[in-house]
Amino acid sequence: MPRFAKIKQELPRPVVSDIPSKIINELEKINLGLRIKPGQRIAITAGSRGIRNIVVILRTLVEAVKAAGADPFIVGAMGSHGGGSAEGQEKILASLGITEKNVGCPVLTTAEVVEIGRTSRGVKVFCDINAWQADGIIVCNRIKPHTTFHGPVESGLVKMMAVGLGKKEGASFIHRVGPDKIASALLEIGEIFLYSKKVVAGVGIVENSYDETALIQATLPEDLIQTEMCLLKEAYRLMPRLPVEKLDFLVVKEMGKNISGTGMDVNVIGRMRIAGVPEPAKPLVARIVVLDLTEESHGNATGIGLADITTEHLVKKINREVTYLNCLTSGNVQRAMLPIIMPDDQKAIEAAIKSLAAGDPTGLRGAIIKNTLELEYLWVTENLAEELIQGGQVELVDPVRPLDFQDGFLVLDL
Fold first, then answer.
1. DSSP per-residue letters across 12-24
2. Distance CA 279, CA 273 (A)
3. Which of 6, 86, 384, 408 is most buried, by the most CB atoms less than 10 A from its CB?
4. GO MF annotations for this entry (predicted)?
């Protein structure tokens, strides 16, 4: 087994220091008060992702709508997540702290949708019935690179309308167009939502590599798509990355839906695992080992198929029903396929090393990360640590030492 050293890499870190004030200023810029009339019911979207400060953000939006004399409510907008049911969506929102008590208004979840139109290619467009029956919708979401496709818009405000508000039906239809056409289909669906005049504003959030709120920008409906395009470029600049583009093995301590829609961010690990879609040229990782599934995932192990080796501990946490629903809805069935299963962390890591058939395992380039969202600190093999430190790319935090296991579980400070 190679020895490892803990290192720290510096990543871009813009931060919004006063979130409520920032949101209020942004809403004043677009004159939200003129877009909302007293007595109107306004829906504010909330998804299933673990967005930093989402409770504060939603509560501030709720207060702003109330200040305009309108009646706000939070609407669950998460496609097929939570099993596609009202109860499942409510459970996910509650796990994120999004409750009536915390945000200051009712939180409504439902599986019922209405068809609001069709795109030029015949894709049906659906909307959550509670949101559609409201007088207006404020679309709020984090903007970031997507884990299935790339285009002018990816994971953000447009997708929140098309897939989030579209529920299980919307998610199913959009994923059936194929990965190479999703971006253009999203834009077409987004245009239908915006043309309906139901959307009164958008609020885009961008996070930095430290999982902190880096940017918040409000936008008028007519500027929403262009604003998202600009924010997506900034999200790419700020996204977390591994310090090298080639590894023999990567150990991921935890995966989960609260970390990435695919459990592990494909933009970090360099894998897509979608039939017909080419794999990224970089980063290139020969073996990926994932050790655990976060409790916040509620058994949804979408993305487990991105790994080569996993543990019995993780597999026992998998809820096959919700995992399969997620992957069947998206059409990305390979991402639900189980990798090699080993009894514990130690045997899983040893299996990855043995599979590389290295005459001298100490010559392998490997890394251990907590997850694909938190990459400031990581453990790397002794040889890789020397290479990175000499290149001035990182600083040494803990000296080289053997890995520590207790009852087969990896004990490592990350």
1. -----S-HHHHHH
2. 7
3. 384
4. lactate racemase activity
User: For residue 80, what pLDDT band results from cuts at 50, 70 and 90?
Assistant: confident
Q: What's the CATH number for 31-238?
A: 3.40.50.11440
Residue type present at position 334: Q
Alpha-carbon radius of gyration of the chain? 22
What residue spans in the chain does CATH classification 3.40.50.11440 cover? 31-238
Tokens (6 digits) for 148 = 């299935």
Q: How many CB atoms lie within 10 A of CB 223?
A: 14
pTM confidence score: 0.80
354 to 134, 185, 260, 406: CA distances (angstroms): 58, 44, 29, 21
Tell me the CB-side half-sphere exposure of residue 122, using CA atoms within 13 A. 2
Q: How far apart are CA 192 and CA 134, in angstroms?
A: 17
Q: How many CB atoms lie within 10 A of CB 237?
A: 13
In angstroms, the CA 111 to CA 167 distance is 7
347-366 pLDDT, tens digit per residue, is: 999 999 999 976 788 899 99
Is-contact 156 204, C-beta < 8 A? Answer: yes
Contact between 52 and 212 (Cβ < 8 Å): yes
Cβ contacts of residue 119 below 8 Å, gap of 6+? 125, 185, 188, 189, 192
Phi, psi of 200 (to 5 degrees): -100, -20
